[in-house]
C-alpha cells in the first residue's frame, strides 16, 4: 500500500487530504473484501482515477509533432516522480557481482552535494550547491545560499555523523580543495579571485579569509565556469576550463599557460601524475592523452567504437535534453551520452586489484557511473567501456533521481560516489519553456525534487574498508614521508601535499634515500616530486634517474627536471637530447614534449631525428604536431583564444630583452635571483606579481624612470631599478608585454602608443620612483564591492533565469542588448563617489546566434557582438554629459579606452553611427568590464 501512496503528488494540501481519506477507504475495504483480485481491482481503479486528475501536458505551440525531437513523445498524464528513502534507493542500484553500495552521508545533513574532497585527517569536505535548479527557471541560482561543510566519522563505524558548516553563504562555489591544516581553497561563481579559508581556533568553521590568487575565473552559465581546482603530483594547481596552471611560491602565486583541457566538471590524476579532465556536454572524457602542460595534441580515434552509447537501466521517463531522438525505446533511457560530471582514476587498495588505474566518471542524465579501461598502444591511449559488450555499465540505477556528479578514491581505500539526488540536472538555459526537456519536467514534476543528496561507498566482497583512520595533520614530517609507500594513492597524495606545504627541509635526506633505494616504484616517484616541491631537487639526482632501469622513473625525471632547466640549469639539454634515443617509446614521447615545452635549441631537427629512429605511432603523431602544429580550433566557451601572430612576435622580442638584461636580477623564471644563502633576492619576483598584472602604468613608469627603496616592506640587494627611458617606446612595450604575459602572469599586452602617452605625462619626473608614492599615481581598478550601480538602455541577461542585474549578468556572453545594435544604445555605471577616471577596459566576446541550440558534433556558428562604433561620456550628476573622446570602433576581444583624467561620478558607453551592416541582427555584448581611476 505504501508504494501506491508515495507514487502520487501529495505535496498539495487538498490532494494530500484526499489521498489520506482514500487510503483509509482502501484499508477499510481490505478488511471487508475477502478476495485478493477484488482488492487489486479497487486499487487499480483508484490509481486510474487519480492519474486522470493530473494536469494534462500538451505540445508547445508551434512544435511540429513529426520533428525527430518530438516524434513519438508520450504526453499522457503521469504520476510525479517521488524521492525514495535512502534504503529504498539503495535497492535500485545495479552493480557487478561482488560489489555493494552503502550510504555514508545523506540529507538532511547535506543538500545537493556537487563534489567532495578530503584533508590529511580524512575529514570530508562537501561542496553543497544549495541554489542549483530549485525550479525549471533556475530562480535564485546566484543567491548566497550554498556552503562548504566538513564531516568526520568519529566513532569509525563508516558513517560520517559529525559535521560543521566550514563556510556558509556562498554564491554557487566552484570547488573545494583542502590545502594544509584546517584550510581550503575555493571561489564563487561569476568571480575572479580564489580565496584561502582557514579555521584558526579549531571550531570547524573558517574564520580567516585571504586572497590566494586572482584572474582565475570567468563568468557565464554555471555549467560553463571553471571548476575542480586540483593539486597535481607535479605540485601545480589545475582546474577545468582554464588554460593555465598556478602554484604557490615563497614570492607569490605564479602561473603557466597550458593546453586547452575542454573540461567542465572533473579533474583527477593517475599514478604517473597525468591529469584526466572530464567533459560536460560532450558526455565523454575531454583531455587525457598527454599531460596538459605540454599543450594540445590532436589524436584520432581516442574512443573505442560504441563508446558514446550509454547502457543505463530503464528509467521510463525519457527526460532527455535532445528529445526523442536521444531516447532508447521502449525503456526511456538515454541512447547517446549527453552530459557527464565527476571523475576518478581509482587508486585505492580496498577494491579488486584489476580496477586500479581504471577511469570512472558519472553520466547523471543516463544515471550511470562508467568504468573505462585505458589501452595504450605505441604511446597512444584508446578508451574502452569495460561493460560495453554486456550492454551495461559499472553502476546503474532504475531510480530516475540518481544523479552521480562526482566520485573519489577515499581515505579508507574504497570509492565514494556523490549523488545529488535531484529532479533536474540541466541548467536553466536548457530547460526553457517550449523545449522538449521542459515538457518532460512538467509532466513528471521533476522541478519539485530539490534539497536532497546522498554520498555512497562502493565496497567489494572480502575486502573490508581500511579502518585505520588517517591523522596526517598531526604527524611529523618524517612520518609523512613513510606514507609515500602506502598502497592507497589518496594517502600518498595527501602526504606529498603536506610535506610540500610545510616546507620542512628536514625531510630531504629521507626523501632522497627513498628515491634512490626504495623497491616501491610509486614511492620513488612521489618522493621525487616531494623534493621538487620543496625546491630541493638536485640536477645530479635527476641525471642519475634518467639512467634508471624503470621507464616510469626516467619519464618522471624528465618532467621534474623542467623546473631546474627553467631556473637556468642548461646542462640538462644534453640529457634531453639523449632521451630522444631512449629504447622505450613512452620515454621518447616524453622527451619530445619536454624539449618542446622548454623550447630547447634546434628543436625541430632533434624531433625529426627522433622520429626517424622510432617509428611508433605515438612518436610520429607527437613529432609531426611539434614540427607543424595544427591550427588552433575555436574553443568556444571552454577556452581562451591564443595570442595572434603579431602578439607572439611582441612577446618573443620582449623575451630576448628580458633574458639579456633583466634576468640577472629578477631570475631566469622571474622568481628573483638569490643573493647568498640568507634567503634574500637581488630584485623582487615578477612572476605571479599582482603589481605587474594590475594597471600597465605601474610597470611602464618603473621601466621609464626606475625605482628605489623598499617594496612592500622588503629590501633587495640590487638596491635600485635603473631608468630605461633612453630605450624606444617599442622596446619598453615589448619587455613589459613579456613580463605581463610570459612570466607566469596573465595580463594584457602593451602597445608603443601606451608607452608614448605615459612618457609624455611623466616627462617632468626627474628622479626614481619610490614604491609607496608610485602606487598613489597608478590608476586603481574600481571594484564592484566599492558600490557600483549599473543601468542600460537595453538589457537581456544571457543567463536564462536566476537573479541578475546588468552588472552581475557578465556571463559567457556577458551583458547584452539582446537585440540589434542601434545608435543611441548605452551602458551606464554610477560610481560611489567622484573619481578621476582615466581608462575603461572590456571584452567583446563571441556569442551564440539567437535561437541556436547545441547539437552533438556540430560546430558552433559564433557571431561577433563587439560595438561597431561608440563614444564614452562622463557626468557629475547623471544629467549633464560630456564626451571624452572621438568615436571609437570596437574590436573582437579586449577593448581598452584611455582618456585624460576626468572627474566624474557617472560614465557611460554609447553607440554611435552605423552600428552593423544591413541585414545583420547582431546585438552589442560585453563582459569583464573594468574602470580605472583615482579618488
TrEMBL record:
Occurrences of domain Cytochrome c (ranges): 649-743
Please provide the record's keywords in A-Z order.
Answer: Heme, Iron, Metal-binding
The record, for InterPro entries, names:
6-blade_b-propeller_TolB-like, ARM-like, ARM-type_fold, Cyt_c-like_dom, Cyt_c-like_dom_sf, DUF7133, FA58C, Galactose-bd-like_sf
Manganese in keyword set: no
User: Residues in domain F5/8 type C?
Assistant: 777-934
**Cross-referenced Pfam families, in alphabetical order?**
Cytochrom_C, DUF7133, F5_F8_type_C
By its UniProt entry, which Gene3D superfamilies does this protein fall under?
Answer: Cytochrome c-like domain, Galactose-binding domain-like, Leucine-rich Repeat Variant, TolB, C-terminal domain
Name of protein = C-type cytochrome
